Amino acid sequence: MKILWANEVQGIGGAYGYATHAAKMKEALIAAGVTLCFDEKDDFGLAVHIVLPNMFRPIRGKKNLLFTMNETVDLHPDYVIEKERLPDFFVVPCKFCRDVFAHYYSVPIEICPEGIDPVLFQFHQRKAPGPGEPFRFLWVGSAGPRKGHDIVSLAWTRWLRTGRMPRNIRSISRRQECTAQRCGIIGRR
User: What is the pLDDT of residues 15-39, one digit of tens each?
Assistant: First the structure.
């Protein structure tokens, strides 16, 4: 079967994860001997889209697969796909995403778990920080509505306001706080 590789996403900003996923999926399909085409006018049996729901544009008259995801319990209004633009089926990385999309759509939804590159992401045994050691909070992802940064920011801010920070937490400086506020990492006081 020939597959149309329907989207070439730029790996910047909020689409970095999608672009990385698409590049790895494309490599895997080629390595498996699948024939890919890149022209909508070509003869193909399936169009594969790996994009945010609001970027999905079905190829009329063809089967369309949309591999997408959502990190919160509701779809942001911008990500709701109108009935006439729905894919023939969704592929999502987990049961959570399946359940979110199933609430909005009645088309088939399959789960294909994401993986990692074990060479790039090797396991290292870690331990919780001890007294006097820094606590590190890592935010991975963009500060878009589907990532839930507003919820994490609110929780973090409320926790800091309690004044009951563990001994291994170091407050950020006012300058760091202003930078974090400008980036949307924490809310304004």
Answer: 677 888 888 888 989 999 999 999 9
* Shared domain check, 70 and 48: yes
pTM value is 0.70
Number of neighbours of residue 137 by Cβ within 10 angstroms = 9
Same-domain check for residues 136 and 176:
yes
Task: With respect to residue 119, please indicate whether it lies within any of the assigned structural domains.
Answer: no
Alpha-carbon dihedral 23, 92, 9, 39, rounded to 10 degrees:
80
Rg of the chain's alpha carbons, rounded to an integer?
A: 21
Task: Phi first, then psi: give them for residue 90, nearest 5 degrees.
Answer: -100, 150
147 shares a domain with 78: no
Domain assignment of residue 116, yes or no: no
Q: CA–CA separation, 48 vs 8, rounded Å?
A: 11
For residue 57, what pLDDT is reported?
A: 92
The four Cα atoms 158, 163, 165, 169 give a dihedral, to 10 degrees, of 90
User: What are the residues whose beta carbons fall under 8 Å from the beta carbon of 133, sequence distance 6 or more?
Assistant: 168
Ranges 33-37, 53-57, 178-182, most confident: 33-37
